[in-house]
Amino acid sequence: MNFLEKTKETALSVFPVAAIVVILGVFAVPAGSAPDGWIGRFLVGSVLLVAGLTLFLLGVDVGIQPLGERLGAALTAKRRLSLLVGAAFAIGVVVTAAEPDIQVFADQACSVFPAMGKWALVASIAVGVGLFLALGVYRTAIRFSLKATLFWSYLLLGALACFSDAPMHGVAFDSGGATTGPMTVPFVIALGVGIATSRATDRDGGFGLTGVASVGPVMAVLAYSLCLGVGSGGGGTEGGGAAVDAGATEGAAAAGGLFSAALAAAGDSCREALVSILPLAALFAVAQAALLRISVRQTLRICVGLLWSLIGLGVFLSGVNGGFMQAGGILGEALGAKAAAGGLVPSCLLLGAGLAFGAIIVCAEPAVWVLGDQVERVSAGAIPRRTLLLFLSAGTAFAIALAMARAIAGFPLSRILLPGYALAMLLMVWTPQPYTGLAFDSGGVASGPLTSTFVLSFALGAARAGRGGDDAFGVIALVALMPLLAIQAMGIMVSRKRKHNTEGM
Length: 505
Description:
single chain, about 500 residues, mainly alpha, about 0% strand
């Protein structure tokens, strides 16, 4: 796909979100209640978002995806299972620790639960991803059932959740979505495809590795909270959630003019992008010296791809941090205040905004585009990217609408997560094999940087104006859950349609 075509498709994904924000900003946000020029900053951020996403996706195609597939194939060719599993663990820890979303998430979680240390939390999440990435690679290598792996993993996860305090559920399940960011997902998906292709494990097509790895951080955070006794009593949660969003809003207002805010966001975003790319670059250098030994031309091609990814991610994050996150908080607080004041129409407006943002914003996530391209290529067009995006949009829209309902009513997150995951486990019985891995991978990729910035800020603002900031935690978990149901439902529908067509011939 060329540059112009990618630019066109990313623009069609981002600009509908911009249109909705501008319309709501003009008609729903009271005059004088928001910083001056916030719509202008948001529009500049939208343009940066399109440009950054286009460059990032080009870099993934040229560098990150070939690197992951070659590394997976090379490790498998060594026929040393201990080397394969050990390398998977190290890759999971290093890449996760460098993920920008993890740093932001850890700051938010520790502001709500001060007993947790930031770097201890980051280390717990990184080790959890490493352990379950190694488990996923081991499962692929020995051709063990993906459905059985997911079933027993979530059964253990459910047991841990039962023993942990309810206030920690949202933070723990959100951590599973925060780990699957723009750097981790493309590389892990490519790694899984490379391993599966080398071992001819065609039943899963290499999918499911991201889904298995996403269980690890949730377990790690729950185990960490049990060791510390964090979450009991729930004291300070509400104020902490409000403080996070209030701090972000005040910081955005203090940034002043359009140029200074954009410049400040660009500097931070470039640093985040550099920290994200460096571990992959170092991993490539080590792998090239010890394992890959690919040609000079291929090496230069991968280096160029990593450079494009670095520039694209920096521009993308500049747009997100410079305009999208602030706009989400402003709109969420304005609509949440109207809903809290009472009345059916304001509540429906908040729910409708959640549905609209969920349906559109998932299509602008970088990892979703990578997964869609990978699925279409591996399945030889049997699973079109547009069909995948349609079901992901439907699931994400419903998830964010549920999060808005929680902001209004304040009901426990467990009332959705427990039956939701139980239904996901049940659907695996009828879901065709490739769709199971695809569904659990989709749950991770749908909750990317836009969800953890714009959507989370939108939910925080609505929750603070409604029933308290702690009700915003769990929105990423809901976004990660719904694709599990939607994509498995898609697989069942496609399977039955093919069966019906075959019988009719």
